[in-house]
Amino acid sequence: MDRRTEEAGLPSGDVGEDDPGRACRRYVGLLLGLTAAMLGGLCLALAAQGGDHFSAIGRSGDAAWYRNFGGDGVTEIQDQDLFFHGIGRSIDQARQADVIILGSSLVSFAIDPSVVRERLERRYGLKFYNMAFVGVASGEFARQIALKHRLHPRLWIVNADDGGGGGNFFHRNLTRAFGADVRPIPSTRLSRFGAYYEVIRRNLRWRFEDATRDIRRALAAPRAGAIPSFDRDDRTGAADMRGFPRFLADGNPGVKITRDPDCHTTPDVIANARDFVQSLGAPVVLTLVPNFHGCLTQVREVADAIGVETALPARTDYSSWDGGGHLDGRGAADFTGDLVSALEKTRALQRMRENDDRGQR
């Protein structure tokens, strides 16, 4: 028996019965248990939604669409992590594609999936995938994804832009840009576990913003100049840009190319383009989505130098929602139809139609 207990006149069995530390531990244990139960319930609820990836913010009735870009305070994007690290279903769908198009946001805005479905998929039975990345002008990021995940379509279409999307497609940098915010692409430096953490964190953040938006707007005005959020379809890679101002409006002006047509490529670009095409291991066709800074001369020079075909629509005045930087909904439908028509004239597509080589992919 403890001497101090004896002196206090207390029976030894009573020691610790009312220990505050024990009560505190019980309380903390209860809180942890409740927290774990709530997190478990949240995880089950998110998993039950069946979206592209765990915690994805999908569409009611069509879980293939997922929130790809958003943020009320700070804008972030998902697809760079999803594609680079093979999270979700996008890479599996891209592996099944007969035709993959690459490019920057110019391509994300310019390809109408309904026209592709009618003109390529239903007519020729070709699965088309849009693997453009908003904010990424260089093709090096897409090239690394193609090599890492062994993507082998029967045909690549490359938007050989040299500045309208923020930089030359045949540059080797790995940066992404949203307006003045230019930085290295984080995905290339993350582990798969780290990328998955970032994907879940963004989705939870966006869900919280969605749930509190009305309250926050009642207290303060929305951030000026915020870029609208948009969704992406894991089956086709298509981006839904309807949330952008005037994207669906009638009467938008057509693109006016302001670039001096006496614009020429460089030996470095040609060398990079040759390496790029050789690394893809399948026929490549170059195109150009019209924009105010576009240069058709460079596309033709690169194509001639490296021995690939071009699919260039005859017109460039497609309607644009932002003054000639990106096409609008009507412009996208018109451009996509004209692109397919130009593609039908290439030897690459004609050989695909004549020789069913799908089993060799």
Explain this structure.
- The protein is α/β, with parallel strands linked by helices.
- It has one domain: Rossmann fold, CATH 3.40.50.
- The chain contains twelve helices and twelve strands.
- Strand 2 and strand 3 form a beta hairpin.
- The protein is globular and about 85 Å long.
Notable characteristics:
361 residues, alpha/beta, Rossmann fold, five-stranded antiparallel sheet, 12 helices, globular, disordered N terminus, disordered C terminus, SGNH hydrolase-type esterase domain-containing protein, transmembrane helix, membrane
Concise account of the structure shown:
The chain has helices spanning 3-8, 20-48, 79-84, 90-95, 105-110, 113-124, 140-148, 192-219, 267-280, 296-306, 329-344, 347-354, and strands at 58-59, 62-70, 76-77, 99-102, 128-130, 155-159, 175-178, 181-184, 230-233, 239-240, 284-287, 309-310. The chain is α/β, with parallel strands linked by helices and 361 residues long. The model is unreliable at 3-16 and 357-361 (pLDDT under 50).
- Any idea how many domains? 1
List unreliable stretches of 5+ residues: 3-16, 357-361
CATH architectural grouping: 3-Layer(aba) Sandwich
Summing up helix and strand content along with how strands pair, one would put the structural category as: alpha/beta
Q: What order do the helices and strands follow?
A: HHEEEHHEHHEHEEEHEEHEHEHH
Number of helices: 12
Q: Sketch the major β-sheet.
A: 5 strands, antiparallel
Mean pLDDT: 88
CATH class: Alpha Beta
Protein name: SGNH hydrolase-type esterase domain-containing protein
Transmembrane segments: 27-48
Keywords: Membrane, Transmembrane, Transmembrane helix
Organism: Bradyrhizobium ontarionense
